[in-house]
Amino acid sequence: MNRVLPILTVVGLIIALWYAASVWLNAPWVYDQAARAGQSVSFSQMLPQTQNQSRPVLPPPHQVADALWQGLTGQAITSKRSLVYHGWVTLQSTLMGFVLGVVVGVGLAVSIVHVRAMDQSVMPWAVISQTIPIVALAPMIVVLSNSFWSGALPQATGLDSRAIAKAIISAYLSFFPVLVGMIKGLRSPDAMQIDLLSTYGASGPQTFWKLRLPASMPYFVASLKVAIAASLVGAIVGELPTGAIQGLGARMLIGSQFGEPLIMWSALFASAILAGGLILLVGVAERAIVRRTGSPA
Amino acid sequence: MTWIVGVLVFWILAWLANLWIVRQRFAQHGAGKLIAPMIFGVTVLILWEGMVRGIGVSAVILPAPSLIWAKVLASTSILWGDFMQTFVRGALSGYMIGCTAAVATAIAIDRSPFLQRGLLPVGNFVAALPIVGLAPILVAWFGFDWQSKAAVVVAMVFFPVLVNAVAGLADTSAMQRDLMRTYGASYWQTMFKLRLPAAMPFIFNGLKIATTLALIGAIVAEFFGSPIMGMGFRISTSVGQLALDMVWAEIAVAALAGSLFYGTVTLIERGLTFWHPSQR
């Protein structure tokens, strides 16, 4: 209770502010309509009219919640209007990019920890790669994957080039936290522990499997949380500039182009829910892994 | 064919050179540390150039680095205009406003532990959300020019900086605060002389994350509508025209701007938090 109450207060404050802002931002339209009709509206008449416009400047929370509920349950989940369908499209690319990013991150970390030339020559570029705004590369990656992901590959895997492009963008954003976390983790055993293993006559691979890898697990799972959030951002960003018509990002784009704020807001909240769910899932996996490896905390 | 063989040989030689260099003493400190990454970067560029020429990749799929460099030289005024529009007007102003607002908010709620306990989890959650999705909404509110880009950047950088600033302000020990009290220091004196300096490593952590977010926000916002200049605008229209050398030229500018931005913040951090163990 001690933890829930402050959170509820802050969330309540945000919702109250949101309602106030929606009245303030939607009121001009009400007054405008009334002026055109030659009527005057009092404040108490204006208030309800700001809360149920079909194209509000800022939809109040209950309208967004309603649109979200409609999007999730209003039609079959295979319908092109269903947020479940669009969420699934985004989720596929997110997970593919996440797995790819984790594999690349772990692979790079292992080689950087073991080969000094990799550490000195690749690590600075890995840092620089994150200062490059990936969205600048996004349209580029779509063009490239369009030309390389063709022929038999799409049929064999059931994935179109756009999904591959989104997964690459997700992987680009999510490999870095894993890389940094794994390097820290693989280097976390201290000299005493490494010395102990060498007195046992352990070989390099044995030291890796029995000491370094288990020691890195807490760092690894902590970095997964950051990586999955970054991966979802990557998938959504990958949908924005590429003219995609499926996915939550595409839904926002469509809402923007057709002037339907409710579509935009419901897609935005659907992606927030997806992000929350993914982070929770990784949290559960984190606890399971940490318990299995027997690490404290 | 000679191109392909040539660059592959070059690649192997550069790799061997790097293996040798990292074992030498001059490569352990100072400028010597830059040699290995430099060789790696140059190798990537030469591999790219050689492969594109050797295999004969069309310039509408992947232009060679030499073509891109020629394009950069030929269109400096366009690139400069786009840089000013996106980076200076959009990203930088939004970054300043967002980071200032975040630190100010952290200080404002500092006296209420109740609000802090509520805001930290909410802020952490919001910081993980794809806020970039707000871009179309904010573009609809603030119009096509740089104001809407700055607004997107403000929304993107606010929560990461806020969460770090709140965590940083909590990072003084009871002993240190008691010492300030025995000096008879007021709340604001304690804030400016002890707690804000102690929070600096945390705040800079947030500021560094925010540099990348700022550029991403400014560029994404341009995909939803912009005046006829800006890096995001140029990239999306040039892709449509298959003018990929222009796209890569903009990417090069974005990469350079992003790295310099990050580097500048890191330098300021080094100057302000010289006392912290990670800087020594």
Give the SSE layout.
The complex is a heterodimer of chains A (297) and B (280).
Chain A lengths: L3 H33 L6 H7 L11 H13 L9 H32 L1 H16 L2 H15 L3 H6 L3 H26 L4 H9 L4 H36 L8 H10 L3 H33 L4
Helix pairs in contact in A: 3-12, 4-5, 4-8, 4-10, 4-11, 6-8, 8-10, 10-12, 11-12
Chain B lengths: L1 H20 L13 H21 L9 H10 L1 H33 L4 H16 L6 H8 L3 H24 L4 H9 L4 H37 L7 H10 L3 H29 L8
Helix pairs in contact in B: 1-2, 3-11, 4-7, 4-9, 5-7, 6-7, 7-9, 9-10, 9-11, 10-11
Short note summarizing the structure:
Chain A is built from twelve helices and no strands.
What percent of the residues of chain A sit in helical stretches (DSSP H or I)? over 70%
- Provide mean pLDDT of chain B, rounded: 84
CATH top level of the largest domain in chain A is Mainly Alpha
The total of beta strands of chain A comes to 0
The fraction of residues assigned to DSSP E strands of chain B is under 5%
CATH topology of the largest domain in chain B: MetI-like fold
- First and last CA, distance of chain B: 51 Å
Secondary-structure class of chain A: mainly alpha
Task: Give the C-alpha Rg of chain B.
Answer: 24 Å
